[in-house]
Amino acid sequence: AFGNAKTIRNDNSSRFGKYIDIHFSRDGVIEGAKIEQYLLEKSRIVSQAEDERNYHIFYRMIAGMTTKQKEELELTHAKNFHYLTQGNCLKCVGMDDSKEFALILDAMKILMFTDEECNCIWRLTAAVLHLGNLIFDETEIKNMPASELSNMEVCNTAARLLGIDGKKMCVALTNRTTFAHNELIVTPLSADQAMDVRDAFVKGIYGKVFLWIVNKINEVIFKPKEDRFARRLSIGVLDIFGFENFGVNSFEQLCINYTNENLQQFFVQHIFKLEQAEYDRESIDWTKIEFVDNQTCIDLLAAKAMNIIALIDEESRFPKGTDASMLTKLHNQHAHNVHYVKPRSAHNTTFGIKHFAGTVYYDSCGFLEKNRDTFSGDLIELLQQTKTEFLRALFMKEVAVSTQTRRKSPTLGVQFKASLDLLMKALGACEPFFVRCIKPNEHKRANLFDRELCTRQLRYSGMMETIRIRK
C-alpha cells in the first residue's frame, strides 16, 4: 500500500524494486526472510500523470478510517487534497479502498506494529496530504521575490501532526538560511521556490516512513543464523522495475533503465553460457554464435570515467550547478558516443540514450534536485524540535550532521549504483531462473492481444535477443 499505485498500465504497480531473500531450514521449511528495497518513486507523492493515482495508502486511509480518526487527522475526502487529484483518478475499478485498509491494519498487527507506531505513521501520512494543500502567494520584500502562505490554518494542521511549531514551519518553508563569512543570511523564497522546498520536505518524510516500514518488517521476519559460519539455504526473488519509456522520462527512469541494462547483460550472458554448454554436449562449433553485448552502454551510463551518472553527481555537488549546466557537460563529453543522442536544438532540455530496448529521451529538468535527494537545512533543524519522538528518530542521521557534511554525503545516484553493484554480486552467486511478464493490452481487458505491444515488451525484456541466440 505504501509502495504500490495505480498507473495507466497496472492497477497495482510496484513503484520500487525489491529483492526478497527467503531462508530455509535443512528440512526445507521457511524460517525467515529479508527484504532489500530499491529506489522508491518519490516524485509520485507530489505529482501524478493523467489517469494515475498516488500511493494506495492515502486513498485507503481516507476510505477506511473511522470518523473519529479522520476528525483527529482532519481528513475529509480524497478530492480535497492536491496531492491526490493531479491524475484526475480517485477510484480504481475492482478495488475497495475501505476493505483494503482493514487488511492493512490486520497485516500490521501480524507484523507486530504497535498501536503507537501505527498512529505515528497515520499522523505523518496525513501531514503529507495537508502540506500538499499549502498555497504560496507571490510577494516582494526589499524588491526581491518572496512568498507568503495564504492558508496558515492548513500549515498549523500539518505542523500539529508533525509535532512542530506552525509559525516556525511557515518561516522555514518561505525562507532559506545560509552562512557566509560567519554571518547568518536569510533569503526569502519565491512562491515557486517555496513549493519546491515543500515538495522536497514531503518526499523526505514519506521516503523515511517507507524505509522505516521495510526495516520494521525485516525485524519481524528475519532470523539471524545460529552459526554465523554456516551456509544458509535460500531462494532470492527479485521483483524489480522493467524497462521504462514514457512521454516524459526523468532521473528515476535513467536509474531504472541503467538497472535493466545490467540485468539484460546478466540475462544474456547466462543464456549464452547455457546455450554454449548445449552446443558442447552436441559437439557443435559454438564460436559462430554472436550476441549483442551492451557493455558499451553500461560504460556510458556508469562504468567508465566521466560517465553520465558521475557527471550528474559532479554537477550536483556544485552550489551553483543547474540542470542546464549539467546538460551542457553531458553534450560536451558524450556527443560523439554512439549510444548518446544530442538534440539538434540548443533550447531542447532532453538528451537521448540508445538502450538495448530502444532509444529513450530524458528530460534533464529536475535531475540535480532528485539526485541530491535532500531538503532544506532549516526544516531539518526544525525537525529537531518536534515533540514526536518517532519523527525525530526517522531523521536522527540527518540532524546529527552539519549542512556542509550533508552536501558531501552520497547522492541518490551514487547510493543507487552501490546498491545495484551489491545486487548484481548477489545474483552472480545464485543459480538464476527468469520469469518474463507480458501485458497483452493497455486496456486491462481479457482475451485481447495487441500484437505491437506484445512485440515491444518481448524486445524490452530481451526475449528477441534470446530467441536469436537459441536458434
Terminal-residue CA separation = 43 Å
Order of adjacent strands in the largest pleated sheet = 4-3-9
Radius of gyration over all CA atoms, rounded: 24 Å
Low-confidence stretches: none
Largest sheet entry: 3 strands, antiparallel
Proportion of strand residues: 5-15%
Number of helices: 21
Q: What is the average of the pLDDT values?
A: 91
Please count the beta strands (DSSP E, at least 2 residues each): 12
| Structural class category | alpha+beta
What is the helical fraction, as a range of percent? 40-55%
Q: What does the overall shape look like?
A: globular
Key words describing this protein structure:
3-stranded antiparallel beta sheet; 50% helix; 21 helices; alpha+beta; 471 residues
Tell me what you see in this structure:
It is a single chain. The chain is of the alpha+beta class and 471 residues long. The protein is built from 21 helices and 12 strands. The strands form 5 sheets. It has a 3-stranded antiparallel beta sheet with strand order 4-3-9. Strands 10-11-12 form a 3-stranded antiparallel beta sheet. A two-stranded antiparallel sheet has the order 1-2. Strand 1 and strand 2 form a beta hairpin. Helix 10 packs antiparallel against helix 11. The longest helix is centred in the middle third of the chain and has 31 residues. The two termini are 43 Å apart. The relative contact order is 0.11. The model has no long low-confidence stretch (mean pLDDT 91).
